Amino acid sequence: MRSARLPLALCRWGTALAVLLLADGQPSAAAGRPAQHPAPRQQEWIAQPLGERYTQTPAQVWEWIDDANALEAKGANGKAAALWEKVLAWREKAQGPDHADLATGLSNLGLLYVKERAFTRAEPLLARALAIRTRTLGPDHPLTALSLNNLAWLYYNQNNNARAEPLYRRALQVAEKALGPEHPGLALGLINLGLLYNGQGAYTKAEAVYRRALAIREKALGPDHPDTATSLNNLAAVYINQGRYGEAEPLLRRTLAIKQKALGDDHPDTATSLNNLAALQENQGAFASAEPLYQRALAINEKALGPEHPATATSLNNLGLLYRSQGAYTKAEPLLRRALAIREKALGSGHAETAAGLNNLAMLYSDQGAYAKAEPLLRRALAIQEKTLGPTHPVTATGLNNLAVLIDQQGAADRAEPLHRRALAIREQALGPDHPDTAGSLNNLADLYRLQGAHARAEPLFLRALGIYETALGPDHPTTALSVNNLAKGYLSQGAEARAEPLLRRGIGSQSLFLQREAPLLPQARRQEQIKALGNVWEIPFSLVATTPAGASLALFTRLNRHGLLQDIERRQAQLGRGSPAQQILVGQLTAITARLADVNLSEAQRRTLQQERDRLEQELYRQLPALTPRLVDAAQVAAALPADGVLIEFQRFRPYAARQPEARSWGEARYLAMLLFPDGSTRAVDLGPAAATDPLIQQALAESLARNRPAGPFWARVSQKVLGPLLPKLVGRRQWFISPDGELSRIPFTALPAPTGGLNGATSESAPTLGQQVQLRLLTSGRDLLSLRSPGPGGQRALVLAAPDFGGPGPWQPLPATAAEGSWIAERLGAALYQGAAATTAVLQEARGPRVLHIASHGFFTTGSGDPLLNSGIVLTGANQRRPSGQATPAAVAGDDGYLTAKEAAQLQLDGTELVVLSACDTASGTLQTGEGVYGLQRALTVAGARSTLLSLWKVDDDATAAFMQRYVALLKQGMGRMEALAAVQQEFRSNPPEPDWADHKFWAAWQLTGDGGPIPGL
After folding, report:
1. How confident is the model at residue 15 (pLDDT cuts 50, 70, 90)?
2. Cβ(480)–Cβ(470) under 8 Å?
3. For residue 778, what are the β-bridge partners?
4. Residue 739 forms beta bridges with which residues?
5. Which of the listed residues 511, 596, 887, 959 has the most CB atoms within 10 Å of its CB?
6. Residue ranges in 840-936 assigned as alpha helix (H)
């Protein structure tokens, strides 16, 4: 993807987060009260009129004050305001218009209005309070300083720093003179001045005043006081804005702990701390860790402050931005739209926070290519930022950067360049030359120059951006990986592939490690979105195999570390999820929801509700599991697992990359590539040509195999010649082939495939034996599987056979007479537990624990009706006909077993210790192709569940022929043959000497595809 994406995400620190941090610096002014009432906070003590602390105030008024303080502490500001107004009315009537206590009441109500963003109501109250105190107490009194501070706070919240700063400075001078340099009341002025500096990007000045405020509060109030937490939080904000995340995190965690202890788990200030910690986690690339913190902060704010409060908008905004970073655009948009609507209503259409909302929604649209929707929002946001914050503010630079990126993406580099250059100048001046946002501008300007062919201008900017990211974020941060990849693209644009290769290896490896850290914590339905959000750089190496000596090695490294990555994660997590009782409860709940999701009669609303609940339960389970250790696989490790006469053949469907073209035109039409790995670690790559020339051959051969109108062999021979023919010169002497297919190649029955013309033994197409006769084959999801398959699996339990289910009377599924005999014969040979008829239920499978062999003889199904590909395929078992088309079910179906085991449910079976799963049914190897992951169907599901190998069908198979085929296959397994050797032997028997003459046709014997461990089954 275009390199501008991640710098945009970093901009949130200048928009969404910084706004919410202001809430922690809010000043307070307390009402004076008698000593018998609870003591006010120490910083508020100076707000009491020194000469008249204990006036004759009625008990009713003190009750109003107590209730108002309590309500405000809970965030019930509207109710608190009503009580403060009653207090103020009593004081004005009873004490007079110039009484010092009246100034306190004015301040309390005015500050509450500031909190509520009711600025026009707040200003006359705070200005009058200042006038009263100046007149009655004098210009150098500490309470006068407090009123100066409060009025400055109002102007600061209105983004009027020119009026706020002199008031803050004057308040600080008065307070320091009157109270001394270490009085806790002085910290308030220091914090607010620091907030102003922080907002201006004057971070060195902000850090100095924040450190002084923290030292004062820790000494005067103690390390666990809420005001000390405020100072910790604000110091962390300065570190964040400077990219000093490692220094910020312990401060934010300490802040949260103090707030929770002092204020409670459901206080809005606790929500602020949760939000800030979440934002820090997100900016460090720990997206999944940030999500529950954001969600908790949002829940607190909605409950305590209401659904229309600006703080609620900030929580919505930040959670929406996180979903954007994860590629979950459909989840992000409603949150960002709602946040924008709240801000426009509560703060006004010209407020800086409204501009932030416009910006964030616009960039979501830009990510999805909706440039026409994004541009007017960005232009409106920039106009607001320039007006409210000024033309040289860092947030204004964010607006410039984002508009420039959008314009550049539409091919108008000449209009984008001045915006990029202006954004860079502002960021260098305001944030410093080493800030991550500065790196973002450097990166974006460099990419513009790259596409213009100005490589001498682009390279130093790319290098400088990478250096900043490595220092500020670390070498393994996803933003650093993006920067590494962008520098690599810069070298590719120059034709310097040799310089690009090590950078691509590093960047792609870093992204793989990031996915292994983050994807396990996401619901399965959102993992593909996170992969897509990282862009398509992983496809580039497959275009380099012919242009750089290390191209084949890099391509294989990429394939080994990206293909099937999610399947690998799911398999490892499934093993870990069979632990504690609490985890087993969650697994049981997930199993029940998955079964309900398989109901085709669910309404869209019902399905959406169930999926949301499933996502929630998955995340809860995954967060309880031990963290997976991220790991990269090197070709040398896989080569060491190959036998001496072996070869790994990794096929890859990819789009060729043209580095000198704009992003939208840089990807060509799909092609196939074969990567070969030999036991000595050497690699070769062979381009197999356009996918458009290969895929139709496979589809036609599949159709002919199923139709049986004419022999399918010649059609498969064409496929064999196209896919394997170009590889033969490099495979001489290789007797053991380990094949990892991709794209439509996953639908090829490799064992039954005719050997290529003039192949391994020089045979012609008419007389060619099958590939399974000539070489020992194993099909793998990825070459990574060799590392796990070389170790023996856990010991399995007694074999399990389900056959001839009772489908439940008339309906779409007709009885399969041959499956009864097949099941009985195989169960007897294997000493297996046999379930037939009404006993062949999904519950039997769900309760099974690692049968050494699992054999199911029934109907299979594959459709394309569901949005979840794992609900589109499965096995038909007892009771399936009881689910009527209208959606009404018989009592047996209502009891919880609808008679279908979908691939989604199969993935939750407990098959650790299962050496082989045989699905003796139609279409069980069918599924939905997913780029980078292979086929989503039963084979994937059973592998995730723990099966070491699976034997499934690529098309519809005959009942009688399948029964005979499977009985012979099991007989050969019992004789000690390997799983793949036995398959090839039975296929050859059916081809040359079938039990019935018709069965010699491809349709009857070639459909079977064995994936995984191809060796003998121990102890069978």
Report:
1. very low
2. yes
3. 738
4. 649, 779
5. 511
6. 842-847, 891-894, 903-906
And the tokens for 202?
Answer: 């004057």
What's the gap between Cα 323 and its chain centre? 7
Torsion angle of the four alpha carbons 192, 195, 199, 204, in this order, in degrees rounded to the nearest 10: 120
H helix or E strand, kind and range, residue 255: helix 245-263
CA distances, 756 to each of 875, 946, 985, 988 (Å): 35, 34, 19, 17
Residue 763: the pLDDT is 40
Residue 674 CA to residue 741 CA, distance in Å, equals 9
For residue range 843-875, list pLDDT tens digits in order: 999 999 999 999 999 999 988 767 788 888 999
Q: If DSSP codes are grouped into helix, strand and coil, which group holds residue 135?
A: helix
Q: Are strands 916-920 and 853-857 parallel, antiparallel or unpaired?
A: parallel
Neighbours of 213 (CB within 10 A): 27
Which has the closest alpha carbon to 925: 909, 913, 912, 942? 942
How far is residue 711 CA from its own chain's centroid?
48
Q: Which of 938, 915, 789, 906 is nearest to 853 (CA)?
A: 915
Going by their DSSP bridges, the two strands 873-876 and 900-902 should be labelled as: antiparallel
Dihedral, 199, 204, 205, 209 alpha carbons, nearest 10: 100
Contacts 24+ apart (CB under 8 A), 993-1002: 995/964, 996/960, 996/961, 999/958, 999/961, 999/964, 1001/708, 1001/711, 1001/712, 1002/704, 1002/705, 1002/711, 1002/712, 1002/713, 1002/716, 1002/752
DSSP character string of 156-202: HHTT-HHHHHHHHHHHHHHHHHHH-TT-HHHHHHHHHHHHHHHHHT-
Q: How many CB atoms lie within 10 A of CB 795?
A: 12
634 vs 280: CA distance, rounded Å: 33
Q: What is the DSSP letter of 757?
A: T
Could you tell me the two tokens for 363? 């960039």
Contact in structure between 764 and 618 (CB atoms under 8 Å):
no
Give the tokens for residue 573: 């997590």
Pick from 645, 650, 694: nearest CA to 676? 650
Q: Give me the chain's average pLDDT, please.
A: 86
DSSP three-state, residue 647: strand
Termini Cα distance of the chain: 51
